[in-house]
Write a structure and sequence with these properties.
Number of domains: 1
Number of strands: 15
CATH topology: UDP-N-acetylmuramoyl-L-alanine:D-glutamate ligase
Shape: globular
Largest sheet: 9 strands, mixed
Distance between the termini: 42 Å
CATH architecture: 3-Layer(aba) Sandwich
Order of helices and strands: EEEHEEHEEEHEHEHEHHEEEHHHE
Strand content: 15-25%
Amino acid sequence: MSRPLHVLGFGALAIDDIIYVDRALTAGKGKVTKRATEHGGNVATALVAVARLGGRGAFIGWLNDQPLADVGGRELERNGVDISFAPRHPFAAPIRSVVMVGPDGDRFIAYDDDVLHGTSDALPDAVLTQAPVLLIDGYSVHSESVVARARALGLSIVADIEWTVGPATDRIMALTDHLVLPISFGKSYTGESDPAVILERLWSAERSAVVLTDGDRGSYVRQKDDAVRWHVPAYAVQAVDTTGAGDCFHGAYAFALAEGKGPLGCAAYATAAAAVSVTAHGGRRGLPGNQTCQAWMMGENAPRPAPLTSG
């Protein structure tokens, strides 16, 4: 069934104060080379990535009910993200973050997330059925009932989980059919280090895919009805700033899924998008268009998925 939008999402919406320094973050101290203020957040940036790729995405998390205070919402709208379905609240505000970026593109994020999270439990089914894919992050534990309704309505749930708060996170993960996780979380959650073993431990009969993202090592994929576990290598690029690369990956994956691609194809497309994104400063400036991603994927030196060997 054709739907008006590709991807709905609720989760982190942030304003990032970014500080670039001239030495590695492990050096202890260094000189500031640049300062910038950018809009970010896992789901928010992922939805901007959807828009840049030519998709139609909507943020359905809490936004402030006063136009002058709705800084994050207005920025999403300027970037092509639909905010018309978002519930409003006078206390809604973005997360505030300070991001330290080293010369190698590595970064450390310190954040203050004492804000209103999730979305309204009263969000109508008519809103949830506007798109075939719902993208969520770890803050979705505040709106578990909405995730459950979306899954019951037939939406594919793509989850970007980076930490656990215990049983509530377990329940969200159980509702998710496309777990797209940083491998660091997969390791801490399962107690395993081998990607093939982590894929196995995170699998369930209700899953469509488990994807582990591993930075410049690429990603690892298990998909339903496929005996092969896959490694999708990363592109060889000179990273300028890795801020938002994971968010770009999630947005591209969700968009490709809405377009009908299988999980391995989604991961390959998202790998290209994320590679392009790290070649510019900031979490959103380098987000690519679809033609750029396709060109990278068709390139002579584009990495190809290969079977994953355990160990």
